Amino acid sequence: TTENTAKVLMAAGYSCECRGPIPVKGKGILTTYFVKTPFDDKI
User: Fold this and answer.
1) CA nearest 30: which of 42, 39, 22?
2) Which of 3, 9, 40, 42 has the smallest set of CB atoms within 10 Å of its CB?
3) How far apart are CA 33 and CA 3, in angstroms?
4) pTM for the predicted model, two decimal places
5) How many CB atoms lie within 10 A of CB 6?
6) What is the pLDDT of residue 16?
7) How does residue 43 score in pLDDT terms, banded at 50, 70 and 90?
8) 26 falls in which pLDDT band (50, 70, 90)?
């Protein structure tokens, strides 16, 4: 699931921001996440 992927990424030092539940084509409603990067603060 996207939640498990976010947990793995956060454990590896990445920062993730929850987008909340959204409809995903072919999957239904899923809680999705943005993966934050050092470049996000510069935009």
Assistant:
1) 22
2) 42
3) 8
4) 0.70
5) 19
6) 94
7) low
8) very high
Q: What is the C-alpha separation between 5 and 7, in angstroms, rounded? A: 5
Enclosing domain of residue 7: 2-42
Say which residue the tokens 């072919």 belong to: 26
Rounded to an integer, what distance in angstroms lies between the CA atom of residue 21 and that of residue 40? 22
> What distance in Å separates the CA atoms of residue 42 and residue 11, rounded to the nearest whole number?
24
- Give buried/exposed letters for 17-35 (b at 16+ CB in 10 A, else e): eeeeeeeeeeeeeeebbee
Which tokens sit at 19? 């987008």
- Total domains present in the chain: 1
